[in-house]
Write a structure and sequence with these properties.
With 374 residues, the protein is of the alpha/beta class. The chain has 12 helices and 12 strands. The structure holds S-adenosylmethionine and iron/sulfur cluster (2 copies).
């Protein structure tokens, strides 16, 4: 992992921020990057560990008993995360999503949620505070998460068939426990829930229709199923284009089941194309990260478990905010760095990949999904 520390002096030179903190340009306020995109969404990875070994994310052969996960002292503390989140919010972030690794493995996560739930936008509004989980621990933890102030959860689930699901999580975890987690989350008020299904051709494509049937029949509008194209994120999953099932083909299969109508995007930066069942029984989403790049309105920043800031899921290096935090930087200095980095952002990996012939696609070493969060 590259340890890119951008010295404050360099940033000042690049952004013409005066050297004396008292004279800083207003370090807060909305920031727009070089492609006109505002900063709205911060994804915070709270652990690089996971109890699953999904082959598309943490293949067992790489993430085995010898793999060195981050030691506790390297993780950002809850205080550090909250301090940074507050500064991001001052720069326009309205949505915080906790992720990982498996975020529910981070001990006392409810405490962090309470701290984040207390933050307010400059207009005094509460933030949209959510979490993405494999739901293995959700049935046990849903009530505490809700009580701490979490608003919603997104659950990842790739199959309803128990054998297929156990194979995909590669730790023999039963699907029934994930379904129980979804039930409990809905009961305690963590809905409506989004369920993310990564579709791999030849692996779980036969599960598309059963998943749709299950969630339409049991939950109507309370659960929105979203189909994610298998992405070439990281460098360990052995990604191949022929294993991607394009969203257009998923849509064809769904239309054959029951008619769907396209919906308008509800907000800028939304990654899913939304479709509504014509019979009124809810919606589905298609996340076409490979076949239809959505970089042009990507408004997300990502904070890794150890405090590296990334501006793209496919970035090959981050910016080390932890060194600044632990080196005694003031809020003003941190805020200036966060703003300056976003203003300099030019990332659009998926667009470039789509435009390049396969052999010329960007090939730099990239961070792993379990480290940066989805
Ligand atoms: N462990 C949690 C979970 O699985 O929900 C949160 C972290 S996980 C990295 C976040 C999301 O990334 C999940 O929905 C997962 O399916 C998705 N993901 C991981 N690797 C992927 C890949 N190669 N392509 C597409 N989605 C991927
Ligand atoms: Fe774990 Fe989530 Fe990655 Fe699966 S997708 S290995 S559950 S972090
Ligand atoms: Fe955003 Fe990077 Fe994905 Fe484009 S490739 S949508 S910039 S995360």
């Amino acid at each position: 992992m590259a340890d890119t520390v951008i010295p404050l002096t360099d940033l000042r030179a690049r952004t013409r921020v005066p050297a004396i903190p008292g004279e800083l340009q207003a370090p807060t306020g909305e920031v727009i990057d070089r492609r006109g995109r505002a900063l709205r969404d911060l994804r915070i990875s709270v652990t690089d560990r996971c109890n699953f070994r999904c082959s598309y994310c943490m293949p067992k052969e790489v993430f085995d008993s010898h793999y060195k996960f981050l030691p506790q002292a390297e993780l950002l503390s809850f205080e550090e995360i909250t301090r940074l989140a507050r500064l991001f919010v001052a720069h326009g972030v309205q949505k915080l999503r906790l992720t990982g690794g498996e975020p529910l493995l981070r001990r006392h996560l409810e405490t962090l949620i309470e701290m984040l739930a207390a933050l307010r936008t400059p207009q005094g509004e509460a933030l949209d505070l959510t979490l993405t989980t494999n739901a293995s621990l959700l049935a046990r933890k849903a009530q505490a998460l809700k009580d701490a102030g979490l608003q919603r959860v997104t659950v990842s689930l790739d199959a309803l068939d128990d054998a297929v699901f156990r194979r995909m999580n590669d730790v023999d975890f039963p699907v029934a426990d994930v379904l129980a987690g979804i039930e409990t989350a809905l009961k305690v008020g963590l809905g409506p829930i989004k369920v993310n299904m990564v579709v791999k051709r030849g692996v779980n494509e036969q599960e598309i229709v059963p998943m749709v049937r299950h969630f339409r029949e049991h939950y109507g509008g309370q659960v929105t199923l979203r189909f994610i194209e298998y992405m070439d994120v990281g460098a360990t999953n052995g990604w191949r284009m022929d294993e991607v099932l394009p969203s257009a083909q998923v849509l064809q299969r769904l239309q054959a089941l029951s008619p769907l109508d396209a919906l308008e995007h509800s907000q800028t930066g939304e990654t899913a194309e939304r479709w509504a069942w014509r019979d009124g029984r809810g919606q589905i989403g298609l996340i076409s990260s490979v076949t239809r790049a959505f970089c042009s309105d990507c408004n997300r920043a990502r904070l890794s478990t150890e405090g590296q800031l990334y501006h793209c899921l496919f970035a090959h290096s981050g910016h080390d905010l932890r060194s600044l935090l632990r080196g005694g930087a003031s809020d003003e200095q941190l805020s200036t760095v966060i703003g300056a980095l976003w203003r300099g952002r030019d990332d659009r990996y998926s667009e470039l990949r789509a435009a390049a012939p396969p052999d010329d696609a960007p090939q730099q070493r990239r961070v792993e999904m379990h480290y940066i969060g989805g």
